[in-house]
Amino acid sequence: MYKILKAETLAAKIHLMVVHAPRVASHCQPGQFIIVKMDEKGERIPLTICDYDREEGTVTIVFQEIGASTIKMAQLKAGDSFRDFVGPLGCPSEFVHEDIEELKKKKMVFVAGGVGTAPVYPQVKWLHEHGVDCDVIMGSKTKDLLILVDQMKEVATNLYVTTDDGSYGFHGMGTNQLQELWDAGKRYDHCVAIGPMIMMKFVCKLTKELGIPT
Predict the structure, then answer these.
(1) Could you tell me the strand order of the sheet in which 2-11 lies?
(2) Is the model's pTM score more than 0.85?
(3) Dihedral sign (CA 140, 144, 147, 149)
(4) Residue 197 CB: number of other CB atoms within 10 A?
């Protein structure tokens, strides 16, 4: 059993949990994921690793209520446990395997949309810990749906927050913010986009025009 040490709601139907899973924490890298099962009959739910603490033996997950299983999962509290917590799974971010000194020469930008902020955070944190600068553009439909803003401020070189309705930060989408930065003379060698499919599509469309590998 894997005990939940912390459970909190970040925004409407978006939740964060810190889970005691020492073996997973000791091996995971940014970009990887885990699979949880609440009980014997529970559905297998894949979730991105949002953060980890090797010393404390904890893994942080962020999830959104979408179907029956995640709605049920949102009702779990600190002190409850998962039946299974399997990982780390998947490939780490490509940056983990690159030469740090070469990475430091690159100007990088991450574009995060909605819950996509959760998998962006551990990558930016890892780069920050290794002395690599990167900018982050993170956005949502409205201020109430923004997550991990304070945490991202601590690890991003420059953080640009956008909302579709203008209720917080830049009024517009991440692509609008990226275009404005480009027009103001900002240049990037690499872009990583994580978020809704339609958001990633338009980020790629723009970065192709600007010549930024994405």
Answers:
(1) 81-82, 2-11, 14-20, 58-64, 45-53, 33-37, 84-89
(2) yes
(3) positive
(4) 7
**Calpha distance 214→203 (Å, rounded):** 9
Distance in angstroms (rounded) separating the CA atoms of residues 115 and 156: 17
pLDDT at 115: 87
Amino acid at 109: V
| Residues of the chain below pLDDT 70 | none
How confident is the model at residue 139, as a pLDDT? 92
- List the one residue out of 77, 105, 79 whose CA is nearest residue 16: 77
Q: In the numeric block, which tokens belong to residue 188?
A: 């990037």
Query: What is the distance between the alpha carbons of residues 44 and 39, in angstroms, rounded to a whole number?
Result: 10
Considering only CA atoms, which of 171, 110, 119, 109 is closest in space to residue 140? 171
State the SS3 of the chain: CEEEEEEEEEECCEEEEEEECHHHHHHCCCCCEEEEECCCCCCCEEEEEEEEECCCCEEEEEEECCCHHHHHHCCCCECEEECEEEEEECCCCHHHHCCHHHHCCCCEEEEEEHHHHHHHHHHHHHHHHCCCCEEEEEEECCHHHCCCHHHHHHHCCEEEEEECCCCCCEECCHHHHHHHHHHCCCCCCEEEEECCHHHHHHHHHHHHHHCCCC
